[in-house]
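seq as requested:
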Amino acid sequence: MLSSGLAACGGDSGGVPTLTWYINPDSGGQAEIAARCTEAAEGRYTLVTAVLPRDSPSQREQLVRRLAAEDSSIDLMSLDPPYIPEFAQAGFLAPVPQEVGDRVTEGVVQSAIDGSTWDDELVAIPFWANTQLLWYRKSVVEQAGLDMSQPVTWEQLLQVAEQTGTTVSAQGTRSESLTVWLNALIESAGGSIIAENSTDPDQIQLGLTSDAGIRAAEVMRQVADSGVTGPAFSTANEDSNATQFEGPEAGFMVNWPFVWGRALSAVEGGTLDASVPDDIGWALYPQVDAGEPSAPPYGGINIGVGAYSQHPDLAYEATECITSDENQAYYMVSNGNPAASTAVYDDPEVVEVFPMAPVIAESLEQAAPRPQTPYYSEVSGGVQREYHAPSTVDPESTPQRAEDLISAVLRGDQLL
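struct tokens:
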């Protein structure tokens, strides 16, 4: 595997073209897929990987810097969906051929297609699509008499947790996790962080002060003030929530599917009793208002082809191999990352490893991407600044402060 520092020189010295795929760190799954696709290419290309930094903002920074310099070594790249509009608007992505776009979106969950789209055009290739579920302890809901075969609301979770002396885990830390949570709350309430989008930052209309935005702030504050979130809620992230949910006071948690494999691995390693995963159930993300379907968080990775690649046709051929149902199923089973293709959720091996696969698929169909904008970093940064800590959120003032700050940043009148 190449390091990110060894792939700075584009081009080939004759013979079989080498395509470099810049990947986010994983457990070796993307490197294995690259080897599989190299073999399947039968000499048309060799696909190698170059590892990006671990955190998403650093990945974006490195890719933007290199693409701004028209780096031809970037043939393919694994992109966090919120940054795709920025890359597309800057001209960093090679246009997706129509016939390729038709093939790679067939049978793909809508949230992954939405997350690969900018300005009504498919600009990246859906690869894997993540979503958060509501995880619960079966013993707790049984004790409380809560029917989990029906949608539940955040208010119900808080009531049951208080009644049973258990916890509700959500991500209250000042990071991208907080934007993910707020976005899901607003979308579940029927609104959006960006109400009217535009490529002109001065024309972007925010929706934080809409009825849905205010309702989302109410729920966030209600959760923070509930007394059932456990200690250090303002620094709680996905990992610390997973740890809390494995503990004796666990009741409910919103989190990504990695928590299931983590629990099973802990049992195998002897650090968690087998009774814990036996007591874990799963359901769709909680509703903000009863009877209104939730809009769970959407995440994952999509594949972009670099605008300065010397082999864009081969690169797009490689994307179709990477995102084949076979490779998506392999990646889900081996690395725990849910597929974008709906067919994968019927794979017996996938269902064996992820018994909650049908709920993941259903959640992905309801999921909503974070704001699709070239200015995502500014929007998310403003949200994190004004909505942290969740216990300080005031539905009457926080949404307006956040709108004022983000609008000023977009106009260039203020810095984050």
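Residues 96 and 121 are 9 Å apart (CA to CA).
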